[in-house]
Each structure stands twice: as structure tokens, then as C-alpha cells.
Amino acid sequence: MTDISPLQWRKSSYSNGSGGNCVEMASLASGGASVRDSKDPDRAVLMFSARAWGDFVAVVRRRQP
């Protein structure tokens, strides 16, 4: 199990102050990323390798209007 306590979490720029659905991400030393639900940060954290995270970001950027 990986200790996530030292991670610097950032909330999605699409988040708003009205309690909407939000995600937070933190960069990993390996170049990958961790993602969690900002409303329930103590639950499961998803961890992605650098390659998987890079592929995900590339797809999202291509689909931006």
C-alpha cells in the first residue's frame, strides 16, 4: 500500500463552491497521478502510471471544444 499523506492534492478547475461532483488529483514522484473524490477523500484513491495518465490527458485534450 502506498502512503498518500504527503501528496499535494489539487481540485478540478471545473469544481464549484455549491457542492457539485469534484475530483482531486495529485502528481506522483514516478510521473504518474493519483485521483480521488473530493467529497470523500478517505475512500479509495486511484493511481495511474505516467504512461496511463499521459494517455488519459491526451484523449481529454483532444475532446475539448
Automatic annotation (TrEMBL):
Residues 7-61 form the DUF397 domain. It comes from the Bacteria. This is DUF397 domain-containing protein. It comes from Streptomyces bingchenggensis (strain BCW-1).
